[in-house]
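Service request form, structural biology core

Requester: graduate student, group of Dr. S.
Request type: structure prediction, single chain
Budget code: on file
Notes: please return the result as structure tokens.

Sequence provided:
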Amino acid sequence: MFPGGRRRAGESERSCLRREIEEELPELKLGRLKLWKEVKGKNRRSGRKMSDAIFLATKAAGRLKIGDKKEIDRAVWRKPRGIRLTPTSRYIRDKLFPS
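Core staff response, request fulfilled:
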């Protein structure tokens, strides 16, 4: 699953991403962030509204050491094909890495 999180009041999407990465993977450092796409929709199963901001990082460096074991139980670098994904994550993967 791709990383996710929720914005706090008054927080920008970019600041939210950096904070979430710092909390969950504190040794991972991201380069410049560029907004790639905003996705808004409705979850087909729950009917819940979804809003995602997808960023591309020019660089990612550092260890994938987990910061909060309650939030994430493991982190690994994977190729984008052949893993189980949520509908949102599948959409992102298919747009970033078309077959």
